[in-house]
Design goal:
The complex is a heterodimer. By secondary structure, chain A is an all-alpha fold. Helix content of chain A is 47%, strand content 0%. The radius of gyration of chain A is 18 Å and the shape is extended. By secondary structure, chain B is of the alpha/beta class. Chain B has one domain. Chain B has five helices and seven strands. In chain B, strands 1, 3, 5, 6 and 7 form a five-stranded mixed sheet that branches. Classes of the chains: A mainly alpha, B alpha/beta. The interface between A and B is large, with 39 and 47 residues.
């Protein structure tokens, strides 16, 4: 939040893809790495979503089956 | 020695259980379906661009996306959309989404819908202009045909009216 320069850098690179992509399905790997480990990120909703609640047992089983 | 192709883990930020579950739905084969394609016709510096996000942003003066019905009906997602005018800031909006943490968007709209950055680019001549309207919908959809008719079709018409030539989607 409030990282204007970071937002500008990411957006400029994204717009470059828009301008320079030559074919459908083209993927560009941009030179940005999120600075936090996944377990330290805070993108989850404060409450479990209804969908996840509904499938919670299946999700647990999928994890066990790995 | 040849260049090693970079491999990105698209599930890196998902909890392991959710990653494993979602993987059970994804075929273990290369995607081969048709992808519509329209190359850019002009340089960015002459192009009118609109932003679209699936983050469930609404103006405080508009109704919020309906979270209560989704809580009652697990497989229903609000199919409406909202217009987010150029110049909108985090002070003007609310955000409703049951699948993400919305607090960052409420503090800085640009983390999701970079309206301020696009206006800066317009002023600097990097893009032609940001269109008068950007758009927000709710990215949890099950009835896709209805969603296309109720949201995407009117959004597209508004974009044509505003002579939008390119769209940047920021998914939530």
């Amino acid at each position: 939040m409030g990282d204007k320069e970071g937002q500008r850098r990411v957006l400029l690179k994204t717009l470059e893809v828009l301008e320079k992509a030559k074919k459908p399905g083209e993927v560009w790997h941009l030179p940005f790495i999120w600075p936090e480990e996944p377990k330290n990120t805070d993108w989850h909703p404060p409450e479990m979503s209804p969908l996840i609640k509904f499938y919670l047992e299946e999700i647990r089983q999928a994890r066990k089956s790995q | 020695m040849g260049q090693v192709e970079k491999v990105v883990d698209g599930f890196r930020f998902l909890p392991p259980g959710l990653k494993a579950w979602i993987n059970t739905f994804i075929p273990n084969e290369e995607f081969k379906a048709y992808i519509p394609w329209t190359p850019m016709k002009k340089p960015l510096s002459q192009t009118t661009i609109a932003l679209v996000t699936s983050a469930g942003i609404n103006l405080k003066t508009d109704p919020p996306f309906d979270m209560e019905r989704e809580k009652r009906e697990t497989f229903w997602g609000d199919r409406s959309y909202r217009i987010i005018p150029k110049g909108t800031t985090e002070n003007d909006i609310d955000v409703n989404h049951l699948h993400i943490n919305t607090k960052y968007i409420k503090k800085d709209i640009n983390v999701m819908l970079p309206l301020s950055r696009m206006v800066e680019f317009e002023q600097e001549g990097i893009i032609g202009q940001l269109a008068p309207s950007s758009f927000s919908f709710y990215g949890y959809q099950w009835e896709n045909t209805d969603f296309l008719k109720e949201a995407v079709e009117p959004i597209s018409k508004k974009m044509v009216d505003e002579r939008v030539e390119a769209v940047l989607l920021t998914p939530a």
